[in-house]
Amino acid sequence: MNRAPPDNPNVVTSVASILADVQNRGDQALLEMAERFDEVVLKGLEVPSSAWKKANNALDPRVRAALERAARNIRAFHETQVPDEVSLDVEPGVRITRAWAPLQRIGVYAPGGRAAYPSSVLMGVIPAKAAGVGEVLVCSPPGPSGSPPDEVLAACAVAGAD
Asked: How far is Cα 159 from Cα 151, in angstroms, rounded to an integer?
């Protein structure tokens, strides 16, 4: 099935320009785009885990308890999803095996903007960790402070993001 052409060729051109700029200039391009699109001046792109813990400690205790409860439930469910290794001798000298092999690293996007979505962090990070992913990084747009909302940062701490 062929895909319909984009409605607006200017969008394709604009996106291609952004991608090329990031490929060529890396983090510097991203920092400039944060200022241009998000109207926030960033010192860097990484929020240290100490800020996640600080945000978690500053949360309303009821919100923190809700995040922790949701995390427990999500973890309990997804830990049951990891399949056991199965081997079968299909004929003499021939064994087949289904083995589980998690990815080494993944990224989770937590939307932002007008609202905080800590549930996106929990539902992305926790299943990946339960599956055995070695490193789970979270990306979320900055608010006016230059950092994602405290609820999103706290969810990173609760979920065990890297």
From this structure: 12
